[in-house]
Amino acid sequence: MKNHTETVNINSAEELLEARSIIYGAVSALFSDPECEKFAMLMNPTFQSSILDACVQLDKNNGMNGANLTESIHRLLRKLDEFSLGNIQIEYVDVFGHTLSKQTAPYELEHLKNSDVYFKTQMLADLNGFYGAFGVEVQSKERADHISTQTEFLSYLIMKELYAIRKNLKEEKEVCQQAFIDFRQEHFSDWTEMFSENLSTKVEGEFYPIAGRFLRSFLEQEPS
To answer: What mean pLDDT comes out for the span 105-119?
Structure first.
């Protein structure tokens, strides 16, 4: 029989998983096209509240006492309230349009040191292999290597792991955990760290540099 301390630890671990999934989902919405339905989720007060609660929880877990990720999301939500959707769309095109710098490209393949076409094709196939293994099909207009697509998938993997834990499905839990680790190491961590840093420091604008700092704060707290 589990004692009280073990039960609290299990519940806390599950809450942290849920918080991380929420933040990955928020990042996915944040870097989607402002004219799409996914971005509109950020305007929903209930979703905003869940994002804020998740940030507070992660900060407390990391000993930040609300001084890092929570401050970042407050700044981002304030700017979201101040800015019109039209202004955000204009800035989105300026930052991520067809003439974008590779330093701030929201695509994994644009950050690869190896520019060989065959290598990029293989990387894209590997990405779709990850998605396909979990029954996920990229249906949006964004590519499989877009940060919005990748973070949505990572959020989904965490939620599947959480479901497996609650249903006591040990094998499924381990599969989801390993897939998450592999995907982050092979397709996500390196380039998004550079992307968030460059977006924070090298982009002129009022909204997306703040978005970059929020992403950077989150990545700094994520398990390596």
So the answer is: 88
Number of Cβ within 10 Å of residue 220's Cβ equals: 13
> Could you give the number of structural domains in the chain?
1
d(CA 49, CA 41): 12
Looking at residue 168, the DSSP 8-state letter turns out to be T
Report the alpha-carbon distance of residue 212 to residue 216 in Å, rounded.
Answer: 6
Instruction: Give the global pTM.
Output: 0.92
Helix (H/G/I), strand (E/B), else coil: 113:
coil
Domain that residue 124 falls in: 4-221
Separation CA 207–CA 215 (nearest Å): 13
Tens digits of per-residue pLDDT, 155-194? 999 999 999 999 999 999 999 999 999 999 999 999 999 9
| Mean pLDDT of the chain, nearest integer | 89
Model confidence band, residue 5 (pLDDT cutoffs 50, 70, 90): very low
Buried/exposed code over 28-38 (b: 16+ C-beta within 10 A; e: otherwise) = bbbbbbbeeeb
Task: Output the domain CATH number for residue 146.
Answer: 1.10.3480.10
Q: Which one-letter amino acid corresponds to residue 89?
A: Q
Tokens of 150: 């990748």
**Mapping DSSP to helix (H, G, I), strand (E, B) and coil, where does residue 183 land?**
helix
